[in-house]
Specification:
The protein starts with 9 loop residues before the first strand and ends in a 19-residue tail after the last helix. Strands 2-1-3-4 form a four-stranded mixed β-sheet, with helices on both faces. The protein contains five helices and four strands. The chain is α+β, with helices and mostly antiparallel strands.
Amino acid sequence: MAPVLNTSKDIILFDGVCNFCNGYINYVIANDHRNKFHFAPLQSKTSAMLSEMHKTDFEKLNSIVVAKGNEVLTQSKAVLYILKNLDIWWSPLINLAYLIPNIIRNWFYIAFANKRYSFFGRTESCMIPTAEVRSRFLT
């Protein structure tokens, strides 16, 4: 029997070897004072379990993923959802970004995602969370 995954919090799946993605996750952690999110690299067992549950190979999507209960958000929808739920003064302004059609937002997202390693580099292994946030990371 497969292990049961606790989905009481939204889970952000991110590219654990991408320097930009790791920086973004650190920004999210610093501004998620309500502890709304848990985190797991796309290269983790948690990501594999969620991929199986949702019948989607998240590693091949080339996208940040938010698993929100039974719903999955990817690309620009995932980024906007995350930013909207952070404790930052400008999060209400995120609503303006939703006025841009999804196809246009995702075009920019994909263009950036395809170049992120060129712009910011990559590491050989996934980031190791600090002791104070380790409990928010899923393996």
